[in-house]
Amino acid sequence: xVEGDEVRGDRCRELFRAAAEIVGPGYAHSDPTAALxxxxxxxxxxxxxxxxxxxxDTDELRALVVASHRFGVPVVMRGAGTGYSGGAIPxxxxxxxxxxxxxxxxxxxxxxxxxxxxxGVVLATVHRIxxxxxxxxxxxxxxxxVCTIGGNVAENAGGPHALxxxxxxxxxxxxELVRPDGSTCSLHEQxxxxxxxxxxSLVIGSEGTLGAVASVTLRLVRQAERERVVVATxxxxxxxxxxxxxxxxxxxxxxxxxxLTGGFVPGLPHHTDPTVLFAGLRGCREExxxxxxxxxxxxxxxxxxxxxxxxxxxxxxxAELVRDKVRRMVAVSGRPRYxxxxxxxxxxxxxxxxxxxxxxxxxxxxxxxxxxxxxxxxVHPAAFHDPADASHEERLRxxxxxxxxxxxxxxxxxxxxxxxxxxxxALMREFFAPPVLRxxxxxxxxxxxxxxxxxxxxLPDELSDSTPASPALPAPxxxxxxxxxxxxxxxxxxxxxxxxxxxxxxxxxxxxxELPYEPLGGSPDLPVLAAVNAGLPGLREPVPSRxxxxxxxxxxxxxxxxxxxxLGGVVAKDVAGxxxxxxxxxxxxxxxxxxxVRLRLLPRPSDTRLMAIPSVPLGEAVRLCRRLYAAxxxxxxxxxxxxxxxxxxxxxxxxxxxxxxDRHLATVAAMTGPEAVAEENVVRWGDPVMxxxxxxxxxxxxxxxxEHEALLADLAERxxxxxxxxxxxxxxxxGETASWPDRTGLVAATVDVxxxxx
Amino acid sequence: xxxxxxxxxxxxxxxxxxxxxxxxxxxxxRLEGESPRGRVxxxxxxxxxxxxxxxxxxxxxxxxxxxxxxPCPTGVRVAVARRLHRAGxxxxxRPGFERRAEDLAVLLAxxxxxxxxxTALRAPVAPPAPNGRFGGTTVVPVWGPLLCSVAPHLxxxxxxxxxxxGVAWDPALAAALERAGGLLGDGGLFDEHDAAVAAALELVxxxxxxxxxxxxxxxxxxxxxxxxLPPSVRILPAYDVFPVVxxxxxxxxxxxxxxxxxxxxxxxxYLPARHYAAGSPVPLTxxxxxxxxxxxxxxxxxxxxxxxxxxxxxSLVRFPGARHVAEYLKPxxxxxxxx
Lengths: 758, 339
Description:
heterodimer, A: alpha+beta, 7-stranded antiparallel sheet, 31% helix, B: 4-stranded mixed sheet, 3-stranded parallel sheet, 8% strand
């Protein structure tokens, strides 16, 4: 039954009265001007709210959520409104909740690089707070001066540095979610290790459709010793793309790798301007020097010119260049405005996508400029148009649909950082099979049964069971045979339950890439799928990604004839829909039989050394570990190991991608004595931590080594081997994982959605 | 150009929001209506009808400082649009101006800088200014009535020293440019402003002037660059015409879009963006005066203990201890060829 406007209006009026009571009359508005001012974002989409409110704290936010459920009125969170997909637009009216007063930084823990804040904190504020304390928060969407953390979490925002460090999801350790009854629950990245599921990953990128986020905990990374940008200019776009291919074929992963194409104007084939590449390099002096050198050589070999710039100079140059290009496009094409969207192709097929963009631009008569994250295959075609032309919107939509359909054909993703929102929801079917979409819809019901949180977003309209999958979609895999490696995409697909880490290592040989995953307690004989399914932590975490972040895709086979699921794909940047793929990490068979995973590979370090300082009294070991951590050395892991005989070892591994570790080894030697560091040795499986925990199922408890001295002393006394890991912020020891308390029931309900269990 | 024609210009806005963080009125409370993007929507709305009181208040809150112009990828100029909108909808006669000033008395009392503008507008005839010739170029110093009012000694001393270096006087051109500099429009006296612009253009068109370099001593008068002046007339900040005689350390008032100052002046660093109301005009509407007052208070707190070097006469009365850049310039013609 369709509800009459009158009834709906009554409910909105009642909600408005309740909301004004909650936030105070100055912070609740239902006038036409307020409605107009919150009806848009940076996309073409529009949606008018019935009321706009600005809560002043979490309690008010919770009360507003309760009120929205009480009156059955949609609730849509809004930060700065700079999204590109209509995520913050009230598609079905209702209440827009502004986060502009939820701007408190609730906690900082600068020793280990954590910030907990409310959703309205501006990203630039986080950048500045981190920088002042010697840290860096890497996600850097172009709207960073004004966009909010809440918006970043909702859309799983990226930016240039998502190439080296991943999108927002990689940096969010926990989210506090407001439930429909006004209670809050914390979803933590360590939940899978404690027997839960990584529901955190579902909420990040869910565009506010699973509930209102009350606070977010962010993980920072160390400020790099050096940062430089190689700016390369090419007369020809194809030469620039060839450099991209060279780069990844040889295992060079810059922190950021963006491209600004020359403007393409249909009908003006002679309008050419240069294509410019920006490669951001960050790391130790040696790494940046060697990587810059390699890059400059690659650029020169392809006929480009290269210039190595410091960051402030680069930022000024880029801003001027982009402005200049846009203004030139306006002048040349006579189209004063542009529309921009995002789409992703696997790196190996970026050239095909770029050609398709030009074909579509010609067909729809749209001049195009593309300033995009080339390293991630994440294009941002900006189509220039004249808003006075009545057909412009239709042509823009047809153009973006054509380009996105091509992305589906080449195995890319619907969105790399902008989200699906309103703009792309109809195209979800091109990227996800009906059974996967049904799971997403059921997940939505688990979190938000009445469908009041940002309705009309992300998911396409309901499908019938007989709707066929788009022919472009690959089927889920289950087969025997060796793993497959795609070097240019820096990806390995493992689809045999018997394939071991040793076999993957042998397959990768001495090539430029490695799988940065040596499960604690595991060995080279351990099957990869078993480790992922069990949610085993990697020895080297989080450098630069946690194991869950290596998961590009996963296939699940389910019982009782339910269709198999292909979750995720093959690209690192994929924020479309709910991030179901990460649930398989620590899924423990609850979601289905894990039959395949596609994992991200990372460049092999140029130098790697084990550090082990044996027989240090526990108290001293913990203090030494803390000092080493504070010394900002390039450790890929570091911690305090309690061996089975009760002896304590401070141990870790130093690794760099470019140049040698000599300088850092001297620093370590000065702090610990010369015998601490082993000769170069790339076989991490033999490290003392791996030996001490080999063959064990692990349990653990959260916290840094120096927060758990008493626990470590107890374990040492009981002769139980344990590893207090700085990177995991957790102490590990052999033991069964405790049963997950599931206080909210969300884990059980999510498991039910997959229907793998009885 | 009328503001309705300018709405075409506004249609270039893509709603990307990159302007938001540059806008001094947005960053205070992060209200969309107090942002350039929000005002673009409200100005479009105003084309088809009359904005309600809330929309009107948001529009009136624009300081017209133009800080949003620089970050805009497509070149939308909200400050210009709002100024023209104000001229089209809000034009005032002189008694209207007086009434408005009375209504704002309380707010004006809080900010000596804005009050200074009102005082100047009550006597909008500028004092005569000296012109000088060197290197085949006429140099016209434009002091601005605000500086003449706040630091008359500085102006007369500088002018006298200029006179000593041998100049031919032509006060009419300086006075005409000063009247056309936008202050009348800031106060809502748009008809008088339009007449002043026409008079200045007519005077400038006199071929007898040859090359003219206008040396501006008040940021407000850099707006002369917006007039359709012939290429023979250049508008330069005074420090680009007269040499800096000593190293200056302090915080340099530097509004967006202004030319970069000489290194000697910038030694103390720039103000952060949130203080960019410096150099902006202050339309005499209550929301704008309130916004300006808030920015002045914030800037005063931020400045405590720092010395401000300014080319904004209003800053001399707003911020105790502020020094005008003219104090550090050598009033000698021919000492430095204009760049």
